[in-house]
């Protein structure tokens, strides 16, 4: 009797799971949660703030425990040889005019994990967010990813408690990966720093610890309209979510808004046209002013033509900088400074510690100029040079500015004020489509805040170029939010400030 051969196993699978963007879009449209009601979030967050005592105190450097200035270089180092160091950097940019500067910079070679755990409840994906204290946050407690940890943290160099939920992001097969990409941090203050940005869906039951809660993407989108609630690490992970246009089949969960998603003073019709153009930019098959290939070719040319030399130098040898008992700063007081703090936080893996922080000189302004082109929303991106980038150039907002920042950036005017800054600051309220103040990385920067804006210019028909023309100046290009979402699926294309604005655009696109 002849044996019956079984069919060979099917080894191939689809290269892209098309269900993931639609499931995330459904979550973005759900502005109320099944696990935690939107109207109950503020009370929950207040309870988490009251549950733990927090304290941050400025101290002189000689009160740092485990930290010291290296005898030979003057670099600020930890006795373990881990965590991070504060060193000197010399950057030279030769593009058109010569730019040259010295500065302190944080060098942290290890790759951290920024991970958000997802789970579906009644057909809607929810994200597990953490109320986490960071010493540099102006209000200390903000909403962070499920896991926010450097390698030194999760390998317990500090000899503290285990990082909760870490296994989902470090053990293959523990969950279903929805997004996973290496992204840069602030190129002006970190040297070649990358974090692994991850969203992982849990396939099992998840025990929720006291400082954690399940929220939909739509609920987090509402929170992005509030000042200093969603931290930088959460924003960069959210930007990496492969969110599609909201499908017509989605029936949003009725919401109890935390704030109105429409900017104060903005006319409903203008905002409606803006959101429709934003959603259209994400629809499959929608065109753009520049094709994806043209946009990538322009960006590759920008990277190729920049002659950027970066050299580490001893901190003690930085010209124009001096060290006092409690600060490392420029003699003229401009730019930023390095300070030290003592921290107490009962909710952290280690309840008390000391560390250095970088303190900027004032609130930054981060803004996209946006316009509708044939009914499709476009944002003006800037190919920006910063000394800490791995690849010299990343796509930045139209305006990226910190008052008194002494570091020159390619494309900036000689006076130090970048193009379009005054235009953004002078924009009429009815042109502002989004505005909120967000903290930058609270684990390394002290009271670093930026005003994030989306400001619309131009005419639908393109006849009136106005102050932000269709014909871009050198170093700038119009791109759709859909194109940026494609690029952010790969590392080191969009900088961290642009990713925050992309997360805000995603939130506006998902709002019902």
Automatic annotation (TrEMBL):
Entries under Pfam families matching the protein: Hexose_dehydrat
InterPro entries reported in the protein's UniProt record: EvaA-like (IPR005212), EvaA-like_sf (IPR038153)
dTDP-4-dehydro-6-deoxy-alpha-D-glucopyranose 2,3-dehydratase domain residues: 39-240, 293-505
Gene Ontology molecular function: lyase activity
TM region positions: none
Name of the protein in question: NDP-hexose 2,3-dehydratase
